[in-house]
Amino acid sequence: MTDDAPEPPSGLRAMLPDLAPWRASRDFRRLWYAGLISNFGSFLTFVALPVQLKDLTGSAAAVGAIGAVELIPLLVFGLYGGALADAWDKRKLIVWTEAGQGLLSVALLLNALLPHPAVWPLYVVAALSSALVSVQRPALDSLWPRIVAHDHLPAAASLNSFRWTVGGVAGPALAGVVVAYAGLGWAYGADLLTFAVSVVLVVRIAASPASHEAAKPSLKAIAEGARYAWGRKELLGTYAVDLAAMFLAMPLALLPFLADELDAEWSLGLMYASVPLGALLVSLVSGWTARIHRHGRMVVLSAALWGLAIAAAGIMSNVWLVLLFLTVAGGCDMVSGIFRGIMWNQTIPDELRGRLAGIELLSYSVGPTLGQVRSGGFAAWWGVRTSVWSGGVLCAGAVGLLALCLPKLMTYDARTDKHAAQVRDQRAAAQV
Q: Which helix (H) or strand (E) segment is 306 a member of?
């Protein structure tokens, strides 16, 4: 280090989020604000839609069917959306899908204002929204590395995680108040407004056209991305670890029943808020993540600790200890998410980034959906608390087994990894 080089922050300052991407990139700031605003609006509909279905049908099965109609578009359009992100202008994809989400909010609003709202439009909107999100997320995830300097990607991952967790904590609370006191129409109308503001912000960022060598959207292009992921065992490990953690230890569907068993129905809202609260707390002190280079080890360690924390929550009979361990679990999940994102953004070449983002979308979306099915089935057979703690133990064991089977995940080091060096050189050459 030269005498003129700035010294790295120390003490408390070193723990705070690194704002370097925020200061250096105007497009990062615009996209960050757009995501924050849109996220709040999405939570309004996330809460309002099942509430409306419950009011119209009185059926828990009808409400649960929302997940079923969302799953197929997620599987189909997640992979194809990744191919589109590599072949088309990423900014245009984000703008058009965001505008499409706004039109779906219009449909929900008009239906809610009818004297007798229909049920079928709610399912149609849920399916179409899942398709649009599946197309948008690969474009969005593959755009961040283009608008943020390579060395700022760890900090950008932390700031994006903070944005999501703020929405996860405050969004449902705000949505509950709006739905309860203002009504469904106001919730859908506010969601429409947030999409409009988001579109205005995203339109103002720089165009992000496809690479010259980009493959056309096709099954062949999707297969090329899958082959690349299969050949990168450390990447494959991040997908597998996250899928195992969410499938085996995602207890959100059981929280209402867990609160009943603890004779603490009043704690249900706190239980739902505990996991995102833990994630938020980690985001607030995420500055340390930029000094970690063995990202694979952190993914494995934090995913295993997520499972153990969920297991502890299932064992405890004191509701406050349950809330504590759910909060710890949320923090561990955030650590895993941050380091997965850093590995993806720093090592995947630009021409494949969209297709790999599509695979990432499936890894962190399908797991929680199937995890609700697993936890519910186990609860029906062996009881709620057994389902929770056994899922956590199975998660820790599965993560450990994956670490043994995929040693490249454990030995990954961002300072020496050849893929990280190639992407770093690729970006440096593009800036010349």
A: helix 295-315
